[in-house]
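Table 4 source record.
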Amino acid sequence: MTRALRAILILIFATVSLPAYAQNDQKRELVKEDSRIEFHASSTFAKVVGVFHSWEADLKMSGDKFETASLEIEIEAESVTTGSGLRDKEAKGKNFFEVKEYPKIRFVSKSITPDSDPSKFRMDADLTLRGITKPVSVAITLRPQENGHQHVDGDFSFNRRDFGMTHNAPLNKVANTVEVQFHLHVKDAAVPAAQLQPRVDR
């Protein structure tokens, strides 16, 4: 057997031996203008919705099997807005996100478990905030669209004190639980025909 033929056979064998997820693990394109990352927090006098405007997400998936997916999100903490200049300043300061010391917020998925409902999943992930990493459990809902696109909605919560946000004003108590939602519009999703539904613009 010639050296060239041996090399070709080795290459073919290696390709065939790769698991399906390794061969088909593809990055999915996001429509960022139709995607959103936000948090909801409550205090004695207000319910606050904060939106992050600068972030990057890397979603990879094998075929149409979302349980094979991996998701990483990196957020610019400085990009948060709440609809109030005074609240924005407070949110970015040392009592909360402390953006100058900790400019990045990171979210990295670890595993995904399917539910009995084919559109529902649980994603276990690590959230890094203010230099502290903690596990979070995310409820995922898939909303396939008839144009082959797909919306991936994620909901989870965390205790702000776990990340060093212990500040509380005497009269305006801030709730410890912060709710987080992300809505990702996936452009090149591979969607089974049985799951298609008419597109509903948000």
